[in-house]
Records
---
Amino acid sequence: MAKVLVATEKPFAKVAVEGIKKIVEGAGFTFALLEKYTDPNDLVKAVADADALIVRSDKVTKEVIEAGKNLKIVVRAGAGYDNLDLAACSAKGVVAMNTPGQNSNAVAELAIGMMIFSARGLFQPGTGTEIMGKKLGIHAYGNVGKYVAKYGKGFGMEVYAFDPFVSKDVIEKDGVKVVDTIEELYSKCDYVSLHIPANDKTKKSIGYDILTKMPKGAALINTARKEVIDEEGMKKAFAERADLKYATDIMADCHAELVEKFPGRVFSTPKKMGAETAEANINAGLASANQIVGFIKNGDKTFQVNK
Ligand code: 3PG
């Protein structure tokens, strides 16, 4: 009987875990749960006899993959799969998948919330600004970017997007203006919402040059990954430009320094919470379970990311 292990350092909502268990057991598989672990070795040990693994941002290293002697599939319940060692998965013939779109709305709602939080001076006493009528730039028009654009329009913002991987027609159909370069996006927009994945091309790609192009009083909203920020460049830009603001859901390595040097201009959630809604947990968790059942029973490899 195939064993499905759910290993989440940051646990799913109880209702999502119950739903995953129901799907797994309903398919005739065994369900196992490892939650809130603090030692990565606990995952190495727990995966030893698992056929399938469901994780969130948990680091699925080469060691984890190799420890899973029976492992056939790993599903990242979420969008970004930079936490999976894809080369190790492929070398061992393990299929790696994500669940695109399943937690996007939750992340988009947080991005909008952070934009307003930033516009209102981090909810501290004093006069803030409104987002209506301001220009919003969507950096990468994927599942989350699309929702942020839609909600931004709902707030009366003028919405722009940069995404060389999405056709102009698709973006324009949503009433969003397309720009051809990131320079254009950042120099035009009062708010830029980041939705790029962290990979070799994007890591440290947002730094001094691009941030100093932003208009006066602009804010960068990051619900994507901290790795895409060049933190040294950001520090330099913020030191030169006393008007720039940063709100992020993924704490910068230099967060304490940013807050100390640039008080009132930098905010980070204590722990990534973009996908921390019951709805997102249920959507991504159940999709993961269904994808595993589909793969083990029918060989369905839809959403495989290590092709
Ligand atoms: C994602 O890539 O899906 C989001 O960043 C959510 O990640 P999480 O599962 O760690 O909350």
---
Amino acid sequence: MYATIKSIGAYVPDEIRTNQWFVDRMDTSDEWITKRTGISSRRIAKKDQLTSDMGVNASLIAIQRAGLSVDDIDLIICATISPDYYCMPSTACIIAQKLGTKDIMAMDISAACTGFVYALSVAKAFIESNMKKNILIIGSEKLSSIVDYTDRTTCMLFGDGAGASVISATTDKNEAIVDIQCSSDGNLKDLLLTPNILSGEKQFIQMKGNETFKIAVKTLVRDVQEIMQKNGITNEDIDLFIPHQANYRILKAVGDALKFEDKQKVVTVHKYGNTSSASIPMAINDVYESGKLKYGDTILLDAFGGGLTWGSAIVKFSGK
Ligand code: UT7
């Protein structure tokens, strides 16, 4: 049995927060934000809108596009660093409740911006071991709830949103996820974190931006080279390169180092900012809805985030 990406869906909240919002409140400029990050706007969830609510909206689209009903889903995995509840219950359990699934296994994954790739690798393992048939994986984030809006070095980077995908069992090798590799290094935990529970500080994101930037570029490039080499895949075999959307300068440096052509590179960071675990499924959905992603296309995913965690995946898209 193989695992395949059967569908994609996404949800973004209505509020568009432009760079001017930050210019009006702190010592920054539209020029600085655009030049250093490539971000022009990001979406912000309503006060009473939770990570699970956005996850449910994205999930309903993904389930419908997979030609399935909620009752066909036998596992829910939600990747998030901005859960509805700290510690418990998991956001996946809340999504399961809101979708109305019956007694199925549901769990969260905490791997920051690499969360969707981690979730994909867990789903692949469950399907290949014949334990599950149709798995709903979600990346959903209300990062506006963990961003310090007095810290000008981080607050303009992040946005809210959700993406979801149904990963199904198939016997067709041409549709199969080719390979996924996920890694971590806790020695670099201090680069990007929320305070530990002994500190008594607020739960806001803290980041050593410049150091993180340099390690991100090096790690993302190396990771992609490794997985492509391991699978005997060259640039010509890849239809779309969809990296985690953290900063346009990172996307450009990585894309250039790997020598992908512009038409292969997917960029959404200018309109959504960094949405952590939601950024890759939101970007896949963007190209799907624009008609550029078709059945049988080969996609290369590449992510990097707090932990540190990183991961890449070569997948076939089997949505119709
Ligand atoms: O998603 C997980 C992974 N996340 C990332 O990979 C993000 C990685 N980091 C970044 O995207 C970039 O490092 C930032 C966008 C956060 C910052 O860009 P940078 O080119 O690394 O700038 P910097 O931190 O070296 O700061 C340059 C200058 C500093 O001033 P001085 O010391 O040169 O006088 C900062 O104080 O820019 C200043 N600065 C700002 N100026 C205007 C920092 N934030 C701002 C701001 N507006 N918002």
---
Amino acid sequence: MEAFVPEQALEDFQKTVLENNPHANMERIRQAFDFAVAAHEGQKRKDGSPYVTHTIAAAAIAAEMGLDDESIIAALLHDVLEDTDTSYETVSEKFGKDVADIVDGVTKLTRVQYSSLEERQMENLRKMLLAMAKDIRVILIKLADRLHNMRTMQYQTPEKQLSKSRETMEIYAPIAHRLGVEKVKDELEDLALLYLDPVGYREITNTLEKRRLIMEQFLQEMEKTIEDRMAKEGIKCKVYGRLKHLYSIYRKMYAQHLGVEEIFDLCAFRVIVDGLADCYNVLGIIHEMFRPVPGRFKDYISTPKPNNYQSLHTTVIGTEGIPFEVQIRTWEMHMTAEYGVAAHWKYKSGPSGHKEGDEEKFAWIRRLLESQQDSDAQDFYHDLKVDMFDDEVFVFTPNGDVKSLPAGATPIDFAYSIHSAVGNRMVGAKVNGRIVPISYPLQNGDIVSITTSNSSAGPSRDWLNIAKSGEARSKIKQWFKREKREENIQQGREMFEAEAKRVGLAMTDITDPEMLPHILKRMAVQELDDVYASIGYGGMTASHAVGRIRDEILRNRAPAKKTELEKMQERADRRQQQKPQKAVQGVLVEGLDNCLIKFSRCCTPVPGDPIVGFITRGLGVSIHRRDCVNYKRDTDGGRWIKVTWAEETSDFYTAELHITSDERSGLVMDVATILNGLNARVRSLNARDTGKGTTVAAITLDVKNAEELQTIVNKLQTIRGIRDINRGGV
Ligand code: MN
């Protein structure tokens, strides 16, 4: 173990920071460094080194992720609130409120208790952490903290190794993935795998070790082959070859029941280019150089992944029959892929006075920032805050289960979300061990326990105003309806009489023995008390009840007017029937409102196509094109139903195109280029050679209507060698 020399550590650290951001404010960062060293003075890690080495390492990772000065300072200080007697106020005074808030956020995340949960709960826990973080930098620093802890896990007890690794695999790696920080995600997964399945881990590393020389040679040769060829074609690019990360190999082994030696595409190459057009050019050239593996081409440029990842992926067969994957992307896409949301900070312009050499190096980043020009710096920063779960709050039960409730929810909502019996017998609540009022707004991460009593008198009417969730409110109303009929009748009658008086309706008119049967029939009740009870528990308003009863009295009282009223009623009824039917997903089904609609996969109808519906057993109505073979062939005539497109159709419909063409290289690229040029929303594009001189390709894409689809087909037909394009299902 090397002795810790603060001056040396500072020098190394400074180097890392400046390498990643030449404009970093070293003055402030150095102050934070000294502050952390002093605050953690005397504290040791499990391996005997000074505790502060951990926070310095986490800050170095934050710097490598490209985070800003505030984040690097906060990372240096991320454990001072939890582990030293430094206060929030001190941090805020010395380093500003932003830094103090970030450190405070990281501390809160660290306090969340984790236990292994079922998958649905796990997703809630991930959301809880993201929601608690508020500022996305909090979660990124937490990832840096966890990454360093995992790198030094060998000094911990086996129990701790296991529980931290599971937490990393189930919570932190998926969060890193969601934020698009793939580099951190890959390393977290590999480190966790080492402890979760040491045997599987070693099986892979041993095999890779044996084949390392061959593969390294292969990687180098391929890098050069591809770079040379691109240079000849006049395309500027950088090629990086690498082995895939261990956990991705591991997952493949287990998903496909293969041994390591049976997994071929262990190698992957990234070709990084300057502009979008070059991506498709490189793809075409790669497919000319090597034979593509059918069905492996994916265009994540026109259809990015949910975490904004963009790239073209293809798998090809290299020399000696070794398959490998190629990812093609621009530098901008590359930064987003490696650092995700963190990429937004990387090289964010520092103080003015750039050094000469920086200009070229940062040109592409300027372009990236320019594309964001219309949003000013402040908005840009706001966009990066985590507000995706603003309408939800996540809390724990005493057993460690996670409950998701509407934002602003109270212990009442929590109690009813567990069980109505818990809510109805609730007499008090504790949050994190402390008694709170039942109107306390729950905070993310709170541990909530409900005190119940069998002698409880039940919920109070005020609770209806305090509860935030529909679930709690309807359960409270149910209780009043059932348990408190007498009280409801009493209260409801008072409200009813007051309303009747207000509109000038005498109670004697209502209780008139001639009139009462008509009224009861109209209200569909046995006795007037039922109406009062309903008003009392809140199922009906007094004005609604009085209004209907008054109508009924008028109708029955004057025969002359009665016909007039009846005519009016009839006209209203007719209007009711004629009112436009409600369309579902842009389709009107004759005689059916709101039924489940499903677009058939065999013929993928889109607006503009003549269509017909088929009444499925239990799955609603499936929509086919009228020229679909399944419609023409089917004899079960009774189950076909008339359907039409609504005047206004909803957004997009999935359609399929089948292309047959002469077999030739560059075909897929031509197709992709045209689709890209038309801004087509492509979901997948698969092509394979039939071996009989033709290539067949299937494209799945989202279109607005048949017209748009036809435009695409017309354009595709101009491609050299195309023999036929059809929509399938015929
Ligand atoms: Mn830490």
